[in-house]
């Protein structure tokens, strides 16, 4: 998701390109994530925009947006990943790859998505 956004490529292009890359092939679950987000993109982005108080999608760091999209998809559309694990993983990745404020922001937003999950699905 991050690469597609940064390179302004369609996610399908990135999946095809990366799936055929012998040095950095996409794992099956990564493809599932990309396809899942792509299939629910409008809904996922609308949910993020609704609960990202004071932030627009365009204003968010690209890493944060990608992590929020993944976390939101896992919470709402992937029953194989425990909801808390989705949040924990997104926060962990934010600590590694984003700003000092990002882990708290991502944790708060994804926790809110989890709180309202029964009304969303």
From TrEMBL:
<comment type="function">
    <text>Involved in transcription antitermination. Required for transcription of ribosomal RNA (rRNA) genes. Binds specifically to the boxA antiterminator sequence of the ribosomal RNA (rrn) operons.</text>
</comment>
<dbReference type="InterPro" id="IPR011605">
    <property type="entry name" value="NusB_fam"/>
</dbReference>
<keyword id="KW-0694">RNA-binding</keyword>
<keyword id="KW-0805">Transcription regulation</keyword>
<dbReference type="InterPro" id="IPR006027">
    <property type="entry name" value="NusB_RsmB_TIM44"/>
</dbReference>
<comment type="similarity">
    <text>Belongs to the NusB family.</text>
</comment>
<feature type="domain" description="NusB/RsmB/TIM44">
    <location>
        <begin position="16"/>
        <end position="114"/>
    </location>
</feature>
<keyword id="KW-0804">Transcription</keyword>
<dbReference type="GO" id="GO:0006353">
    <property type="term" value="P:DNA-templated transcription termination"/>
</dbReference>
<protein>
    <recommendedName>
        <fullName>Transcription antitermination protein NusB</fullName>
    </recommendedName>
</protein>
<dbReference type="InterPro" id="IPR035926">
    <property type="entry name" value="NusB-like_sf"/>
</dbReference>
<keyword id="KW-0889">Transcription antitermination</keyword>
<dbReference type="Pfam" id="PF01029">
    <property type="entry name" value="NusB"/>
</dbReference>
<dbReference type="GO" id="GO:0005829">
    <property type="term" value="C:cytosol"/>
</dbReference>
<dbReference type="GO" id="GO:0003723">
    <property type="term" value="F:RNA binding"/>
</dbReference>
<dbReference type="GO" id="GO:0031564">
    <property type="term" value="P:transcription antitermination"/>
</dbReference>
């Amino acid at each position: 998701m991050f690469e597609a956004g940064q390179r302004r490529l369609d996610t399908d292009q990135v999946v095809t390109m990366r799936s055929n890359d012998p040095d950095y092939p996409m794992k099956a679950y990564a493809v599932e994530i990309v396809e899942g987000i792509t299939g629910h993109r409008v809904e996922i982005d609308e949910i993020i925009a609704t609960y990202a108080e004071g932030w627009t999608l365009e204003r968010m760091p690209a890493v944060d947006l990608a992590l929020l999209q993944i976390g939101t998809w896992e919470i709402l559309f992937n029953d194989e990943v425990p909801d808390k694990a989705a949040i924990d993983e997104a926060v962990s990745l934010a600590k590694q790859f984003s700003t000092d404020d990002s882990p708290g922001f991502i944790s708060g937003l994804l926790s809110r998505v989890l709180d309202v999950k029964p009304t969303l699905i």
